[in-house]
Write a structure and sequence with these properties.
five-stranded parallel β-sheet, 33% helix, 10 strands, binds S-adenosyl-L-homocysteine, Cobalt-precorrin-4 Transmethylase, domain 1, Methyltransferase, Cobalt-precorrin-4 Transmethylase, Domain 2, 2 domains, elongated, single chain, alpha/beta, five-stranded mixed β-sheet, 10 helices, 243 residues
C-alpha cells in the first residue's frame, strides 16, 4: 500500500508552494490536479502520470465519493500519490473529509499545508487582513450554499456582523447578494468597505472595490467570476496607502 499526500498548491503562483510540496510533486508516481491548482501544474515534470479531477469529474460525473475512492485505488497501485489542492488542503475544499476517508479506509496519508487564498489573494492587492487600530481579528467563512443547504445556514451572521474585525468570504461570489444582505441585516453599515479579489496570484488577477451598499451592483457590472475572495472591513482602505 502506498501513501497519499494532500498537498497545498497555494493560491496560483507556482513559486508560492513549499519546498516539501515541490519535492513530492517531483517524486510522485501519480499527481491528481483540479481546477484550483492553476499555475502549479507547470511544476509537474513531463511524462508524469497526471489525473485531472476537474475534467474527469465532468466527463464521468465523478462525485466527491468517487474522488475519495479513486485516491484509495491509486494508493493500492502506487507508492506515492500526490493530491494537489488549491490553497491550503484543510481550508474548505473538503480536504478534511478526504483525510477522514483515507484514514477510514486504512490508507496512509500526510498533509502538506499551503498558503490559503484567504490570506494570499487580499495580500496580492495590498490588503493586510489585520492592522493595529483598525482590525484585530480575522474570520474566514464560506459564502457557498451547500447542496444540502446546511452550510450557509449554519453561519451565525449576527456574531459575524458584530465581530468588529475583518471578514473573509470564500466561495461567496455566486451568493454575493445573499451574503451582503445577511451582513446588512445584522447591523453592518452600508459604508463598510468591501473588496472582491478574483484569481489572486495569477496572470488574470483582478480586484473590484466597493462598499456593502454597492458591491453587488459593482461586481455584476464588472462581471466578477469565481474563484474570488471577498474581504469585508476597514482594512480594505489600507490598500490606498500602499498602491
Ligand atoms: N483550499 C482553498 C480554498 C478552496 S474553496 C484555499 O485554501 O485557498 C475555493 C474557494 O477558494 C474559491 O471559491 C475562492 O473563494 C477561493 N480561491 C481559491 N483560489 C483563489 C485565488 N487564486 N484567488 C481568489 N480566490 C481563490
Amino acid at each position: 500500500m502506498g501513501k497519499v499526500y494532500l498537498v497545498g498548491a497555494g493560491p496560483g503562483d507556482p513559486e508560492l508552494i513549499s519546498l516539501k510540496a515541490y519535492r513530492l510533486i517531483q517524486e510522485a508516481d501519480v499527481v491528481l490536479v483540479d481546477n484550483l491548482v492553476l499555475g502549479v501544474k507547470k511544476l509537474i515534470p513531463e511524462g508524469k502520470k497526471v489525473i485531472d479531477i476537474g475534467k474527469t469529474a465532468k466527463e464521468h460525473k465523478l462525485s466527491q465519493d468517487g474522488i475519495n475512492m479513486l485516491m484509495v485505488e491509486l494508493s493500492e497501485q502506487h507508492d506515492k500519490v500526490v493530491r494537489l489542492k488549491g490553497g491550503d488542503p484543510y481550508i474548505f475544499g473538503r480536504g478534511g473529509e478526504e483525510a477522514v476517508f483515507l484514514r477510514k479506509h486504512g490508507v496512509d496519508f500526510d498533509v502538506v499545508p499551503g498558503i490559503t487564498s484567504a490570506v494570499a489573494a487580499p495580500a496580492y492587492f495590498y490588503i493586510p487582513l489585520t492592522y493595529r487600530g483598525i482590525s484585530s481579528a480575522v474570520t474566514v467563512i464560506t459564502g457557498h450554499e451547500m447542496e444540502e443547504k446546511e452550510e450557509i445556514d449554519s453561519i451565525n451572521w449576527e456574531a459575524i456582523a458584530n465581530l468588529k474585525g475583518t471578514l473573509v468570504i470564500l466561495m461567496g461570489v455566486g451568493n454575493l447578494a445573499k451574503n451582503v444582505d445577511n451582513l446588512l441585516k445584522h447591523g453592518l453599515h452600508a459604508e463598510t468597505p468591501v473588496a472582491v479579489v478574483e484569481k489572486g496570484f495569477t496572470e488574470d488577477a483582478r480586484i473590484v472595490v466597493g462598499t456593502l451598499g454597492n458591491i453587488v451592483e459593482v461586481a455584476a457590472k464588472e462581471e466578477v467570476k469565481p474563484p474570488a475572495v471577498i474581504v469585508v472591513g476597514d482594512v480594505v482602505n489600507v490598500r490606498e496607502k500602499l498602491v
